[in-house]
Amino acid sequence: MNFNCSWNEITYQEFLKYLDTIKDLKFQEFQKKIVLSEEVIGIKTNELKKIAKDISKYDYDSFMKVNNSSLYETIMIEGFIIGNLKFSIKELAPYIDRYLEKVNTWAHVDSFAASLKQFKKQEKEGFAYAKKLIHSKNTFYKRCGVILLLDYYLHDVYIDKVLEIVSKIKTDDYYVQMGISWLMSVAYIKYKEKTLVYLVNLKDDFIYNKTLTKIVESRRISDEEKKFIKSLKREKEKMVKNK
Q1: Is 38 in contact with 72 (CB distance < 8 Å)?
Q2: Residue 63 burial by CB count (10 A; 0-12/13-18/19+): exposed, middle or buried?
Q3: pTM of the prediction?
């Protein structure tokens, strides 16, 4: 399909038909289970990125205005288009906000955050924006903030600030809790002593135990260390008392 076109309802419908011609039915069934959505065509991520790159060369703004489908792939393509934009964080923020309003699965958030390489070059502005997302009441906004910290700020300059922020997040939302657990487990691998201090003082037992599980699943720690991590797990009886 030629992506150098004027995007309107007619060309957008042609685009949807095009996506249907390149679907992989086996991958579709697999992807539905992963992203927990039935609105999946079945197109692999690399192909979605290629399509997004082609669209971003031309009239991407018009595409995003008519992109009103709730399909997993069409939303993900928009996310990858935003990742291709060479904007400042300030200029990028409205695009990110609109995108996060559309997402309907955790996978939209994680793949999107990983594509936002602008956060590597604009760390200070990006960190402030990630914190803003974390303070949102919206599940996917909040998870996006956590995953941005995970992807771009687990290094010497920001590690203390990141651990301080995520250890204070209070949430009962599963997807946010899992995002924090993932971040804390990676932080532990990189900064064991620092992370352990915050980890053992976590009041959220679910996040605490999930973090331990993810650490144990890592291939980057020894069997002896895994035994130690397992010994830190909070038992159900203790968890009830903590509540």
Answers
A1: no
A2: buried
A3: 0.93
